[in-house]
Design goal:
The protein is α/β, with parallel strands linked by helices. It has one domain: Ribokinase (UDP-N-acetylmuramoyl-L-alanine:D-glutamate ligase). Helices cover 38% and strands 23% of the residues. It is built from eight helices and eleven strands. The protein has a nine-stranded mixed beta sheet, sandwiched between helices. Strand 9 and strand 10 form a beta hairpin. Helix 2 packs parallel to helix 3, helix 5 crosses helix 6 and helix 7 runs antiparallel to helix 8. The termini are close together. The protein binds 3-hydroxy-5-(hydroxymethyl)-2-methylisonicotinaldehyde.
């Protein structure tokens, strides 16, 4: 457990069903001993990969919500952003970063936008372009391959080789992002996470256990954000994260959890170290 009590502001949506966003970030950060402080970007009945959903954009309310945090003079060890509800939220978040990010605050941007080569229902190119502003300021970004392609203006291809992915990492680093992790690249029976950090270029691979669950990227980013907030070294954080996801995916698969429900991590939270 960390010696200092840590706090993370989590700017993400609240989806009532289908594990993702805040319903993942809050328990995972809590299990890592970090206080998760949510700023909702939208409220949904369930995530958008289901056939139908209720969606309430929270943009109008965010300035007043955050304004009160200003009055209280709150301070955070990390700011973690995920799913956005509208284009205007980017400016609201930029203001948030300006006011709440101190020298030592980790800015962790998961540029949630899409998967498997296509954008999520509520995203369009304008919102993707706005997301570039956030990504360019971040200490660390964790796009999947689809998101990395959109952010870097690269055409999405399936089964890219290492060179293709490291090129994208360079382009994203050129736009200002600190550490870049391209997450969840499937290759045969392995799943790879590619890292570009300073002079380091490496990937770690884990067994792919036969199922792709919605919201897995949110579990990945929440764990990474938590470990890095605790100042766990990058490679160690990545290995711990990938191992947890593998175990939780295997558990979910063996228990016939529907893919839309997301990985059933709750019975395994006590394993998080
Ligand atoms: O896991 C990404 C995500 C987050 N939030 C919402 C989503 C999705 C993916 O579908 O729909 C609302």
């Amino acid at each position: 457990m960390p010696e200092k009590l840590l706090k993370c502001a989590v700017i993400n949506d609240l989806s009532g069903y289908g594990r993702c966003s805040l319903t993942v970030a809050i328990p995972v950060l809590s299990a890592l001993g970090i206080q998760a402080c949510p700023v909702p970007t939208a409220v949904l009945s369930n995530h958008t990969d289901y056939d139908s959903y209720y969606f309430k954009d929270f943009t109008e309310d965010m300035p007043e919500y955050i304004g009160n945090w200003r009055v209280l003079n709150l301070m955070f060890d990390a700011i973690y952003t995920g799913f956005l509800g509208s284009v205007r939220q980017v400016d609201i978040i930029l203001d948030f970063i300006h006011d709440f990010k101190k020298e030592s605050t980790l800015l962790f941007v998961d540029p949630v936008m899409g998967d498997d080569g296509r954008l999520y229902d509520t995203y369009d190119l304008k919102l993707c372009n706005e997301m570039k502003k956030l990504a360019g300021l971040a200490d660390i970004i964790t796009p999947n391959l689809t998101e990395a392609c959109y952010l870097s203006g690269t055409e999405y291809i399936e089964n890219p080789d290492d060179g293709f992915i490291y090129d994208i990492c360079e382009r994203l680093a050129d736009t200002g992002a600190g550490t870049v992790i391209v997450t969840g690249v499937l290759r045969g029976d392995k799943i790879l996470n590619f890292v570009r950090s300073g002079n380091d270029r490496f990937y770690i691979e884990t067994d792919f256990v036969g199922a792709k669950y919605c919201g897995t990227g949110d579990v990945f980013s929440s764990l990474m954000c938590g470990y890095l907030t605790r100042r766990v070294p990058l490679r160690k954080a990545l290995v711990l994260t990938a191992e947890f996801i593998k175990t939780a995916t295997e558990f979910s698969f063996n228990n016939n959890v529907p893919f839309t429900d997301g990985i059933a991590f709750e019975p395994l939270l006590h394993n998080i170290i």
